[in-house]
């Protein structure tokens, strides 16, 4: 799925809404013409549009089980918004969007777990870093029904940090025909392929 500039920016703006504004509000009773609706969840499109991202990824147990306060101590405000609140950075602005090293590893900005190798990265023109595959076992997938569509969310398998979404069948000339569309701010880059221990409490505040 190739996002046009307008839609890509819409995703960014929507992701910056406070979490409580992404959930369906309780309807107000129309005093002139009562409407027998108990909640907006009865309207599939609005429920999907304003609902929060995958609840399964929020409740799933990960090796790194730090609390929100502990994450705030090691992440800056924007990293916390994207990694822990499932936000999205503005397209075309990320540090690694046009970063194409010959070797090295992209790691989770939260826990430093290795996620992608440099040779997994390719140019997709979508405005976010794109990878056709991940390091085996490094990324977990969940269904995400926000924005009125069904997408596949990807998170760090070590800490559950939100990375982005994965799209398949777009026709890119890669071995997997998949595009892992990842927020730059969810990543760090290392020139060395150095694994971290599961459940590491080492963070990376900038």
Notes on the protein architecture:
The protein is an alpha+beta fold. The radius of gyration is 18 Å and the shape is globular. The chain has helices at residues 5-15, 44-50, 55-59, 68-74, 77-83; strands at 105-108, 114-117, 121-122, 130-131, 139-144, 151-156, 162-168, 178-182, 187-190. Strands 3-4-8-7-6-5 form a 6-stranded antiparallel sheet. A 3-stranded antiparallel sheet has the order 2-1-9, with no helix packed on it. Residues 22-53 and 196-204 have low confidence and may be disordered. It is built from 5 helices and 9 strands.
| Number of discrete helical segments | 5
Strand content: 15-25%
Mean pLDDT: 78
Element pattern in H and E: HHHHHEEEEEEEEE
Q: What's the Cα radius of gyration? A: 18 Å
Blueprint of the fold:
Blueprint: H1 5-15, H2 44-50, H3 55-59, H4 68-74, H5 77-83, E1 105-108, E2 114-117, E3 121-122, E4 130-131, E5 139-144, E6 151-156, E7 162-168, E8 178-182, E9 187-190
Antiparallel strand pairs: 1-2, 1-9, 3-4, 4-8, 5-6, 6-7, 7-8
Which key terms come to mind for this protein?
206 residues; 6-stranded antiparallel beta sheet; 3-stranded antiparallel beta sheet; 19% strand; disordered C terminus
